[in-house]
Amino acid sequence: MQYLRRDKKDEEDGSQSNPFQNLDKSAVLQEARTFNETPINPRKCIHILTKILYVLNQGQHLGTTEATEAFFAMTKLFQSKDVMLRRMVYLAIKELANIAEDVIIVTSSLTKDMTGKEEMYRASAIRALCKITDNTMLQGIERYLKQAIVDKNASVSSASLVSALHLMKPNYDVVKRWVNEAQEAVSSDNTMVQYHALGLLYHVKKNDRLAVSKLIFKYTKQSLRSPYAVCMLIRIASKYLDEEPEVADSPVYDFLESCLRHKSEMVIYEAARALVNLKNLKSRDLCPAISVLQLFLSSPRPTLRFAAVRTLNKVAMTQPMSVTTCNLDLENLITDVNRSIATLAITTLLKTGNESSVDRLMKQISSFMSEISDEFKIVVVDAIRSLCLKFPRKHHVMMNFLSSMLRDEGGFDYKKAIVDTIITIIEENSEAKEAGLGHLCEFIEDCEHTVLATRILHLLGREGPRSQNPSKYIRFIYNRVILENAAVRAAAVTSLAKFGAHCDSLCSSILVLLSRCLLDTDDEVRDRATFYVNILKEKEKALSSGYILNGLQVSIVGLERALYAYVKDSTHTAPFDLKTVPLATTPMKDQVVKPGKTAIETPSAPTKASAPVAATRQDVYAEQLAAIPQFSKLGPLFRSSPKPAELTESETEYVVNCVKHVFNDHIVFQFDCTNTLNDQILENVKVEMEPSDSDFEVVCYVPRPSLPYNTPGTTYALIKLPQDASSVTCTFTNTLKFVVKDCDPSSGEPDEEGYEDEYVLEDIDVLVADHVQRVHKTNFLASWDEIGDECEMQDTYALTQMTSLEEAVKQIIEYLGMQPCERSDKVNTDKNSHALLLAGVFRGGHDVLVRARLAFDQGVTMNITVRSDDAVVSEVVLSAVG
Amino acid sequence: MGLFDKLAGWLGLKKKEMNVLCIGLDNSGKTSIINKLKPDKSQTQDIVPTVGFTVEKFMSQSLNFTVFDMSGQGRYRNLWEHYYKTAQAVIFVLDSSDRLRMVVAKEELDILLQHSEIAARRVPILFFANKMDCKEALSPVQCSQKMGLDAILNKPWHICASNALSGEGLTDGVDWLTDQIRLS
């Protein structure tokens, strides 16, 4: 029956049927027992070996015992003199080498073959041998391999060189000794041998920069015959040049340029590609390479055209001006019969062209959009994205184009690229927002990708309520509640609630819609709907902004740990306090954690859900600190400074970095020390701190008992913060104190006697920013109203040293250590004034919001308003800028 | 087997094929013995310790021998058993000058004889008491005593002194093996 069906299918396909189709692994292994029979039938055995290889290549997994059995049966085929069979055996050995046990048994047989007279055996035997060899056996066969490298027969020599490359990873020290043989092989007449020998030589020397430079100089002088070897040399040279500060003067650069005039096209292309990819090259020096690529553009061979246009496409991303010279040739390629070339040509033109040509190009590209593969469609989408950023005024053309692409068939990656692009355009260009949201709404009407649908619903919830006519989105969102799966329904419910919370006029209608969801079949959807209905019924701005618009701000890992600790604690005297949970350190724009969002996403898209749950750096620190007994009573970690401050120069005897960990009433300084002297062992290492303000009190030090050479060690200092909440800044002078024991650098044995020594480190400042944790408020204005003006402070400063609004914004964010909201960190370049909105949490759990109005007129003038729930905190934050 | 091959077999033109397993402790001279049995022109000068096994072929008057020359090193001895099944005869090489390790050789022989593939079959075993040129070498009789060869009842066996370097005694052993196979 099965045969019949298959035959029928074959007829339909009109193709030849595959004789190895539907092979069964166990049946094949059963057949492999034929190998044990004598005399051997080579033809039958070759067929069986082919089957084994086929099965392995189809991805079937062989167990160790089955593989070993088949392997040993196969070893018996060595008694046959049939050349084809023997070569097949080599292939099978290579495949089974990693699965079967005791594969080493064929070592002597292979060694015999590789040194034997039969030329057909030798190269393949070497390749098989290197697969089964481990480092203990390599010593034994080393001399055969060395001989083979310089063998007259090119295939033998190539095989041994390639094998040496494979062996190098685990056995670098052995292969290193074959350099002389490899050098001899480079001067071979055979193109392949020369290429492989140069490769081996480079890989042996690649960690030694001086040796690499010698290699390059040697072989750029004596010209290599093989174009492959020259290409290899070009790659080595360009890698070498990337680490060189001054490129254009180097003789290596001259070599690359001279390769542009090589007789082989391959070498010319490789040289041009290397030149345009050089990191430190000025655009003027690109000209010769670009003109070579331009020549290739009109080559009759499609491969060359493709290579050239692809390279130019890459160059256009960074240096569009240099590519403009090729525009005429690129225009000709738009109508190329090869669609890949045409696509790349158009996207290159989109990057280099001016605003007027955009319309024409877009029309051109849409004519064959349906004929190219998804991968190239993504290239087109990326080009459109960068184009939109370049010419914001053209957004309606792009938007229409993107929306028609959204309607077409396409895979997930393709749709995701389009949605990403539309979202970027919306975020960058407020004029395009209405149209973009409209297209996205249309898209989710018929979208099979849950991830994309939830993402768009989240975006609608955020942006929709603030548009001119919010009510028009509600129909689209509510349709999802009726038609989609549980994950999308839940997202839609959350999105609806946001409309209700934001627009009072819509609230009553939203309540009607949400109450219909109360009877949903899915738990998550029901829970969300119930939660939102109850909050919206309260009609309290504070509640809805806190629980619907802004959501949870805590670190998920921290929350999990805190809840776990709370559940394990048997007393339960106090209710669980959310304030004790550390805040999320990096609130990403699109990863703001909504209640229950991760829970619902886990079944549908586990990869995406796991991303926000991964432990952040701060969570790792919190765990390390909690393990130290002196710090166990400090409470939850509030904030760790984002990057370690260096307290020494990087090249000194001792290298010390400092990380500040702020707790409710304490600061822990973590000093990561490294001893770079190999003749010393440091003991009892600690950093003594001297505060400039006597209110800061050093509680204790946690010294590091021993610090051997080149192993980083950590010591801590615990500082108590002053009672007076208004004094928060301080400068500490630090001294590294330790006991030195000299030791023998080779053996590492320390002397008995040590002596005390100290080493002066740079000062550490504790700033206001250290006391503030960044928090993202999606709806800043709601939070601003919610917090009220009881503790509002206001002041005006003139920041004379600032030269632009952008710089001022950056500095203020840094001084305050707060999170910019509503994308107010992006300054519109053609305006003279700007409003910066910042949100954060001050140590002790006080919410702080800052609104700064900046005006630019020679210097920057700033009016700053701080609101928080504590007057002292407002004052402290205000003082930070002054 | 093709028709022509069969015809050749009847007429006695084609020689009979024979699979032999050559085992023994390391450094007993297995590879040297096999090397000496090969035709003069294909002999090699340098003999190195075998890793795993090699397949060698040589001819006597009426038989084609295919020998699996196994490695004798301790870590490879447990791999011998993979080749017991196909072996039609066994050559066991002893180092007659190494009195100390004769017990080890006996141990290996016992394991061989007890193996299910060998125990049930009437496999002829040829012992070479190799290195007879050494001064302190044991005689074949002493060897067979030390090895307890008298206890082998269900298999034909033969021991002869040999010198793999000169080739002395080798043809004697191979002739015995040829006779045994012709009988069976």
From TrEMBL, chain A:
GO terms for biological process: endoplasmic reticulum to Golgi vesicle-mediated transport; intra-Golgi vesicle-mediated transport; intracellular protein transport; organelle transport along microtubule; protein secretion. The keyword Transport applies. It is found in: Cytoplasm; Golgi apparatus membrane; Cytoplasmic vesicle, COPI-coated vesicle membrane. One of its GO terms (molecular function) is structural molecule activity. Residues 1-23 are annotated as: Disordered. InterPro entries: ARM-like (IPR011989), ARM-type_fold (IPR016024), Clathrin/coatomer_adapt-like_N (IPR002553), Clathrin_app_Ig-like_sf (IPR013041), Coatomer/calthrin_app_sub_C (IPR009028), Coatomer_g_Cpla (IPR032154), Coatomer_gsu (IPR017106), Coatomer_gsu_app_Ig-like_dom (IPR013040). The coatomer is a cytosolic protein complex that binds to dilysine motifs and reversibly associates with Golgi non-clathrin-coated vesicles, which further mediate biosynthetic protein transport from the ER, via the Golgi up to the trans Golgi network. Coatomer complex is required for budding from Golgi membranes, and is essential for the retrograde Golgi-to-ER transport of dilysine-tagged proteins. This is Coatomer subunit gamma. It comes from Desmophyllum pertusum. The gene is COPG2.
UniProtKB/TrEMBL annotation, chain B:
NCBIfam families: small_GTP (TIGR00231). The keyword Metal-binding applies. Its main location: membrane. The gene is ARL6. InterPro entries: Arl6, P-loop_NTPase, Small_GTP-bd, Small_GTPase_ARF, Small_GTPase_ARF/SAR. This is ADP-ribosylation factor-like protein 6. It comes from Desmophyllum pertusum. It comes from the Eukaryota. The keyword Cell membrane applies. It is found in: Cell projection, Cilium membrane; Cytoplasm, Cytoskeleton, Cilium axoneme; Cytoplasm, Cytoskeleton, Cilium basal body. Belongs to the small GTPase superfamily. Arf family. Mg(2+) binds at residues 31, 50.
